[in-house]
Write a structure and sequence with these properties.
Pfam family, one: SBF
Distance between the termini: 37 Å
Radius of gyration: 20 Å
Helix content: over 70%
Protein name: Bile acid:sodium symporter family protein
Subcellular location: Membrane
Largest sheet: none
InterPro entries: BilAc:Na_symport/Acr3, Bilac:Na_transpt, Na+/solute_symporter_sf
Number of helices: 16
Structural class: mainly alpha
Keywords: Membrane, Transmembrane, Transmembrane helix
Oligomer: single chain
CATH topology: Na+/H+ antiporter like fold
Length: about 350
Amino acid sequence: MQNEQITPDQPGSDDKAARRAVTVFPVLVLAAGAAGLLAPGTFAGWGGSVPYLLGVVMFCMGLTMTPLDFKGVAQRPWAVAIGLVAHYVIMPGLGWVIAHALGLPPQLAAGVILVGCAPSGTASNVVTFLARGDVALSVSVATVSTVLAPLITPPLTLLLAGTYLPVDAGSMVEDILKTVLLPVVGGLVVRLVAGRAVDRILGFMPWLSSLAIAAIVCAVVAGSAGTIKSAAFTVLVAVVLHNGLGLALGYGAGKLTRLGGPASRAMAFEVGMQNSGLAASLATAHFSPLAALPAAVFSVWHNISGALVAAWMAHRARREDQACAARAAGGPAAGAAGAGQP
């Protein structure tokens, strides 16, 4: 659900639309997962459609992109580079550590690691907006991490998950090119050629992406319904740890490199939120439906946690802005008077 360029200064209608999207999306995906679990026979045959559904998601992402997204990369290469390094170091590393610490079986361990090796999540821009973060930086990092995924995700997966299961990195590169890069480029080209027509349907794109991701989750859950009950709690613990530590360390990376408050909030979501649709597709194609289960759970959880963390960050940012405004209006005396306030 990658958004157009949005900033916290835009009118409230954008804020309401974004809040509605991140509220409805987890509910929709959760309902799809429940359908796959309760009626696996109905949806088990959907497994072969997962790469095509992911292609729809990435094509919609491409439609929302403009040359300004790439211009932002050129204007702030250092900040974007920090975001990319943090994303592709922290999340893969966390996936490997968590898989070892929890003693996960090979299929689930490979699935958790693959989620960590995926590019940034497609909803990270919306959640950054809600958190009053640096949306331009968020869009830039998400865009570049997606474009570089064919070069980074397969070798990282081979390095970290190869001890659990055989990994065909070359075939994985081909799959990412076909299901991620080509659809994104195709959507961008269509936007450039038929921009006015695309502008009229942009509001529908997040919902089409949401439906496609929900269908992916439904297919993944249906494919491994028989083993979910025994593995569900362990997978949930792994996902919550992976996502929560990713959000915290992403924010810390922004603070450590002195990017500032808004950019640090963007970094939290660009590190902690993953393209779980891609991870589910690759796990299904290269490992098994069970290996795709962590990606399916991550798809639900990271949107719930992202919305909650964004609300907390936005509340803190507003309080800080009010405190700064009060100090500016009252001078040093006002600042001293307000020092004891909670």
